[in-house]
Amino acid sequence: MAIFQYIGRNSEGQKVSGVIDANSSSAAAGKLLNKSIIPLTIKTVQTNPADDTEHNLQHLLTSKKVSTDEMLMFCRQMYALMRSGIPILKAVTGLAQTSKSATLKKVLIEIHEQLERGYNLSVVMKNYPDVFSKLMTSIVLVGENTGQLDQSFATLARYLERDSESKKNIKQAVRYPLYVLITLVIAVFIVNIFVIPEFKDMFSQLQTELPLPTLWLISSSNLFVNYWYFLILCMAALIFLVKSNLATDEGRYNWDRRKLKLPIVGDIIERICLARFAHSLSVVLTSGIPITTSLSLTADAINNSYMASKVKAMRKSVESGESLLRTATASQLFTPLVLQMINVGEETGRLDTLLAEVADFYEREVDYDLKTLTDRIEPILISLIAGLIVMLAMGVFLPMWDLYSAVQG
Predict the structure, then answer these.
(1) For the chain, what are the domain ranges?
(2) Alpha helices in 132-265 (DSSP H)
(3) Coil, strand or helix: which one is 110?
(4) Does the pTM exceed 0.70?
(5) Which residues pair with 38 in a beta bridge?
(6) Across 264-383, where does the E strand assignment appear?
(7) Homologous superfamily of 68-161 in CATH?
(8) pLDDT for 139-191, tens place per residue?
């Protein structure tokens, strides 16, 4: 809870000032409007640290992002309700009562309260950046200004539907390789902790020099049996360090840049980002948002900080008077075919339509690559499994063959 100092005018037009407690400046403005005071300025005076700590802890424990499928259903229902002529207040109330997402239900209830105070939907949505992206908020704002709010939600529904479909295809493509890798790691632990020690006791009775593969297996088993807690601690520390690094802007930027160069999957990731860029830019341009603002919104929607920095550099060049074609060429992000379509789009004034075709082109390539991803990764997985089996077989059976030869001799 914060304390805000305000200056405003009452119902008689007289200038008034004072302080008020509220969770945010928007909440403070709402309280003042309920008192028939029109706020002119609102400034934060004091914040209770104990309240902030409690609020942050509660947010950390209870916050949960709304999934793409839930947001897609919300946009579809809002389009249907707006199309049917149902008032926005009644529509938001109905969706809050029927929503299966606790987070979205809570947000819609708070949005309804602020809409009753006279705020626009786009203004209220900005207060929930974890739920509504900047792209969604901007398209809703355009819909409010043009009187086509239902079409704005229809556009968002189509955008989220394609985004959801892409995510499902990616999950389906990586499910099998991920399952094999997890099984392989579990198998390594089981073999080293339970299987090899049994053979180790038998080999120790041979009183002969053991072959190199067997010594490697015994050393590996000793490491797992005697220092398993240290291995788990190292894995936990590694995961923590990686997450901490990715939480920083520099770490996230470096990882987003490097993963585009990864073998096998790097090209797929790059095309996914470019498809998202083209589709997002097409959507916001179709909604009537200026090109400079559209590039900023698209940069946030790409979900890759390295490519987002390239798009923001394109926006600065466009603001300085450069054409989109020149800035796109200088960014070195696009293929010649895409650059040609951008050129035609600028000349014909159909940039949004041609960008949608670019997005379709990239998405078709991504769908094909995802379908063949398992075929490309499978030889690597088979090689890993075969290497593990060969190493285990050589380490176990070579001493037995030596023992059999000695007995025969």
Answers:
(1) 2-62, 68-161, 168-409
(2) 134-146, 149-190, 196-203, 212-226, 228-247, 249-258
(3) helix
(4) no
(5) 9
(6) none
(7) Type II secretion system (T2SS), domain F (1.20.81.30)
(8) 888 888 878 888 889 888 988 888 888 888 888 888 888 888 888 888 888 88
